[in-house]
Amino acid sequence: xxxxxxxxxxxxxxxxxxxxxxxxxxxxxxxxxxxxxxxxxxxxxxxxxxxxxxxxxxxxxxxxxxxxxxxxxxxxxxxxxxxxxxxxxxxxxxxxxxxxxxxxxxxxxxxxxxxxxxxxxxxxxxxxxxxxxxxxxxxxxxxxxxxxxxxxxxxxxxxxxxxxxxxxxxxxxxxxxxxxxxxxxxxxxxxxxxxxxxxxxxxxxxxxxxxxxxxxxxxxxxxxxxxxxxxxxxxxxxxxxxxxxxxxxxxxxxxxxxxxxxxxxxxxxxxxxxxxxxxxxxxxxxxxxxxxxxxxxxxxxxxxxxxxxxxxxxxxxxxxxxxxxxxxxxxxxxxxxxxxxxxxxxxxxxxxxxxxxxxxxxxxxxxxxxxxxxxxxxxxxxxxxxxxxxxxxxxxxxxxxxxxxxxxxxxxxxxxxxxxxxxxxxxxxxxxxxxxxxxxxxxxxxxxxxxxxxxxxxxxxxxxxxxxxxxxxxxxxxxxxxxxxxxxxxxxxxxxxxxxxxxxxxxxxxxxxxxxxxxxxxxxxxxxxxxxxxxxxxxxxxxxxxxxxxxxxxxxxxxxxxxxxxxxxxxxxxxxxxxxxxxxxxxxxxxxxxxxxxxxxxxxxxxxxxxxxxxxxxxxxxxxxxxxxxxxxxxxxxxxxxxxxxxxxxxxxxxxxxxxxxxxxxxxxxxxxxxxxxxxxxxxxxxxxxxxxxxxxxxxxxxxxxxxxxxxxxxxxxxxxxxxxxxxxxxxxxxxxxxxxxxxxxxxxxxxxxxxxxxxxxxxxxxxxxxxxxxxxxxxxxxxxxxxxxxxxxxxxxxxxxxxxxxxxxxxxxxxxxxxxxxxxxxxxxxxxxxxxxxxxxxxxxxxxxxxxxxxxxxxxxxxxxxxxxxxxxxxxxxxxxxxxxxxxxxxxxxxxxxxxxxxxxxxxxxxxxxxxxxxxxxxxxxxxxxxxxxxxxxxxxxxxxxxxxxxxxxxxxxxxxxxxxxxxxxxxxxxxxxx
Length: 980
Fold this sequence. Notes:
Blueprint lengths: L1 E3 L4 H17 L7 E3 L20 H8 L52 H11 L4 H20 L2 H21 L3 H29 L11 H15 L18 E8 L10 E6 L22 H16 L8 E4 L11 H8 L5 H7 L2 E6 L2 E2 L16 H11 L15 E4 L5 H11 L9 E2 L2 E2 L11 H10 L2 H6 L2 H14 L2 H4 L9 H4 L13 H4 L13 H20 L3 H4 L10 H16 E4 L13 E2 L8 E4 L9 H6 L13 H4 L5 H12 L5 H6 L18 H7 L1 H10 L13 H10 L3 E3 L2 E2 H21 L10 H19 L4 E6 L9 E9 L4 E10 L5 E12 L1 H18 L4 E6 L2 H8 L9 H11 L4 E6 L6 H12 L3 E5 L4 H11 L4 E6 L1
Helix pairs in contact: 5-6, 6-7, 9-10, 19-21, 26-27, 29-30, 31-33, 32-33, 34-35
């Protein structure tokens, strides 16, 4: 269908509505091409003011589930009489002449085949020769195995479906136990084949964001087709040694387009798929461009601050900045020059470059092999270091590199003389501009920030969240995709600046003008444990990422001045600094001093902890256990104070049901399923009655418990006696009790899984009844419900099966003769409650020597465990014991004492005190034991809870310790379950 729209939007509306009607009237594929006289984004125009991000054409494309496939040809035409040109649509594209040879590709779905691993191990063991020959032979063998054993995935699927359909027909005529067993076997094979198909399309679609969820084969298939169409090359226009074995350095080149529908070689970036079996360690770990601790964000901040200085410069002296883009920098490094640079290192580095042989992948097929004579490979881990070495030698000479004048820009400060600026631009050959474009993917800020400044980022997110993806994914899939897309794109930007502030994608597109958002977006963005879906709220995530930048400043300078900055007013400060001030509001929540000599601490005002007079004070992040800053805890700190939750929402996300049912249950607990009562409340309908029975109002309680259709479903399933009483409870209590019921009700199916599947089918049949008046629910509802539940559990049993466990027995191990042992333990009442510690010294016979208890006030369990170790070591030293073995049942405490401890750890002072005790002039070590071997020390730690505040030495054996001490002396065992 072709057309030309009028440039007047009110005149083009009828034809757009006509196309919308055509789209809704048929489910067949269709294509539309022509001149819409409207823009999708700013890249489709030259000059003028930037368009706003809310384009009507974009919304129309999304509403009708269309996919923009782009085009090949001129982007912009000179205006003479008309800006139109002929449009040729070819439904069958012609390939460039190319040898019909495709490279061997490893298929991830092979890993799911039961014989694959043994086949590879067996073949590899029997092959002879070096690694290259064995790899080549294995590739051929896998290709044959794929053809003869694994088979064609889609042909196998078709055969399986045909066999299952034949069994269903036979069972309809007469019952046969043999056919029933065969049907179960084929169903299991079919589920395994679906897993293979999902993995096949996942690999081809290049989408690595989805780790688990519903089957998204349709989404992956469409992603693959679109990527293949956009990356296909129809034609290009031309612009005016023996130390390394053969084939070890063979390389495949894939041409990655830098723009949509490339038409010239300059618009393609050659990325090498390198063989990196060899490793040559010849480069220094610290290079000019690889500075330890420096991040990409730091470079962005420096560039933005420089431009801010330009923007506000005054006086007679102007400033000029030249953004230089080197055209194909890697490709223009001459080997002779690289040889000179690497001469002092040795010849082997150059051989890694000169032994390269290329094959290009063009439209999925391989070209003939050829050898280069210059340049280094993009994709080779050695290339960045070689390039840096060469750039250091050429730091004052740029002639050997070709400047890409199309991408280079010159910008001057406002006080620069315009004549001088033009002269400099003419000499340099780069255009004079007010906008330098992007740097490392982030726009240069050269004026006041508006919503158009970051329109490119918004457009990119919108393209990723296209309408067709909403229809190709379930709500669980859309939720996972939102997590990946909305933060992966703008994350660098949000670490450097406060962005000026898409919920449609999550709820899906209905084809109506107004999309129904079932739950408030603020609730959706809450963490899952607080009743939300865990989608990161852009504004809050922006503030948390800015807090990361602010924390780096605080930690580097060890200064609290940034914490007071939000309350101060700064005149004419940069946008970067304003963003950091915005993030410093979170920094003040997590900031805490680790006390050293106390020189930097204000005793009454600062938040501080610890003791060590030999070290300087340092700041730590108190919201994590290791004292290191994390964006996650910074983000959560914005929610915990203002969120009230009455029950454990994590229960929903731990259910053993498909993800789409988890999101359904979440909506159910939120009370936001779109029943007729909800529709009337939202002014979407006038009749609140149930569409199934038309007797009562369709509330959630009526729909799932009181309706005649629901009653018939529960009677068909059969309610277990253990849970029957819950059906007279309040609706939410009924839900919660049945969800927690994990007992098995039939053939290994838990009641909670069957219950939730029943709710989901009840809602599914209700919706079918609303949209199809001829639909009738099944006469025996339990059959499809049980079949669905069983199939899902069988298909996922290998992924989610519980590991088997075995019983192991433990007893307290006494020390060797002439040696003593002290067992220590900590106690904590709640996550952050009263803490205490205790310990007991015994000889090789298990005889009581002495003990201690200490009440430490409030804190966490790790702090109690470490204090127990320290007090235990101090007690044994004071008692004159010089051969001692310390045992503690806290693996974390033992690991911190025996290993390296970061200075930022909140308890690093206490840990170092324990280490200092171990290094004294005595025979002393500390090791971890299980709780079952540390019962006597556990009793002493609990005694500390009832003792007075402080440290107390216990000389006489307490009565409560007599029994566990006697059990340890006779080596009485205690059992414990361990996963196998």
